Amino acid sequence: xxxxxxxxxxxxxxxxxxxxxxxxxxSVCRAGLRPRLCMHALTVGLxxxxxxxxxGPIGAxxxxxxxxxxxxxxxxxxxxxxxxxxxxxxxxxFYPGQSSYxxxxxxDHPAGMAAVAGGTPCSACHRGQEAALGERIVAGGSLEPDPxxxxxxxxxxxxxxxxDNERLYLRLQWPTQSDRPGQVHDFLRYDGQSWAPxxxxxxxxxxxxxxxxxxxxxxxxIALDDGTVPSFEQQGCWLACHDGMRDMQRQPPAEQVRAHxxxxxxxxxxxxxxxxxxxxxxxxxxxxxxxxxxAIAALKAAGAFLELMQWRAAxxxxxxxxxxxxxxxxRLSDAGVGPFxxxxxxxxxxxxxMFDQTRTGFxxxxxxxxxxxxxxxxxxxxxxxxxxxxxxGWQAGDLLPSRVLSRADAQGSAADxxxxxxxxxxxxxxxxxxxxxxxxxPEDDKPxxxxxxxxxxxxxxxxxxxxxxxxxxxxxxxxxxVNADITxxxxx
Length: 492
Ligand code: HEC
Description:
By secondary structure, the chain is α+β, with helices and mostly antiparallel strands. It has a domain at 69-183 and 218-339 and 407-490: Sandwich (Immunoglobulin-like). It has helices spanning 26-30, 35-38, 101-104, 113-117, 123-126, 130-138, 205-208, 232-235, 254-258, 261-266, 293-301, 357-360, 367-370, and strands at residues 4-13, 46-54, 89-94, 154-163, 167-175, 187-190, 195-198, 219-225, 306-312, 323-327, 331-333, 340-342, 353-355, 385-387, 399-401, 403-405, 419-425, 428-436, 453-461, 471-472, 476-480, 486-490. Strand 10 (323-327) and strand 11 form a beta hairpin. It is globular. 46% of the residues are buried. Bound molecules: heme C. Residues 99, 104, 109, 111-112, 115-116, 120, 122, 124-126, 133, 136-137, 143, 235, 238 line the site of heme C.
């Protein structure tokens, strides 16, 4: 199943677009490695593709086609699905701000509080209101105390679904707010003495102040349940979103989370992320009121967790994958190793990998390269990475990705989403996602069967944001060969 057929890093130099005096790329010139490249303009003429050919049913790119001109992993090339023949469902995603589980059941949601507590679906009252709700919340107010200027209130996601004996295929398309894809994440920057994090989401104070650029990947999330999580079919991801979480109301200080028996001491966390109310022992499902570990283990064994998968434009797409996680007492990764790990060595406080200059022509990147934020520049362990050399003559301003990707090292249940390919064209992402109907890992996945219905809800993180600054859907029914909001059509 491992279909990595090769990684090619091509420098594409357009002489026609050269501009005199334009900057050169990264440390290439400074290190005197490839002076030829420095003669050409960066601005328009120089395009680096981290060309990664992932062969396989949805993303097969013939080796010859990856030469020079074809974007990385053009989707659909040999899909078993004729997508033009599959009906599409338009799903409105909207900006939810801080509308948490607790807010929905509180006096600030007076018309809905009792109904929500009683399990009434959100759509019973809010059907068709998504865009209006989103536009109102995103502009700022009690549900969004810290608005991001110009952000959209809603995004329309186009969803198509198909299946065969082995796999579910999803094709997901949405417009980006920006005129470029968000394909880079935060970096490590050398300041002349040590390496420190550089860039981040738009919500981060140093990015809001303009001290650092907004560098954060685009993402698509899918939450999936088979009816085991009470009320998920009615209320979707709002079950998992609580006061006390990162960037939500009443966020506790890190030391309080670190001191918490389960979340801090056992799980080693210092902030609160998604969780399900049944893992808490009070009626308001407070972040710190966790039930005993045996009770939580029993919920897991009964399948009462939410499956949560995320396609990531910077941290998984360059290796043709999505991550695979689940939500129970916390937002957890499935067992095994996912598509990316940190590039920071906690011991030496230096990067673990740099670019392999024999393959890329450079060891690190420069600010001019990453601030256009349109190229992936992924550091791929088995592709274009080399072990970090502390004596390589690093200079202030050198940048390395803060994550290392690997398809070869990904394994176990965390690596179930191995055939997910996103491509961006003229303002639209198209992600084609193939997933085994039954991953064989029921301890942290939801097995799917033809003839059955499941509940899904979608999220999109667009334009360099994280946490609550995303867009979400109300829950929808997904039928595998049976009628539902989204009907997966059988293909051979
Ligand atoms: C019984 C009807 C009802 C149900 C069920 C209900 N709501 Fe509401 N909700 C309302 C009404 C009425 C308002 C206030 C009027 C408005 O803003 O449209 C409101 C307001 C909101 C707002 C605030 C909008 C703003 O402008 O500030 C959000 C967000 C919201 N609801 C989300 C939800 C979600 C999510 C669910 C499901 C978990 C839900 N509601 C279930 C009736 C309901």
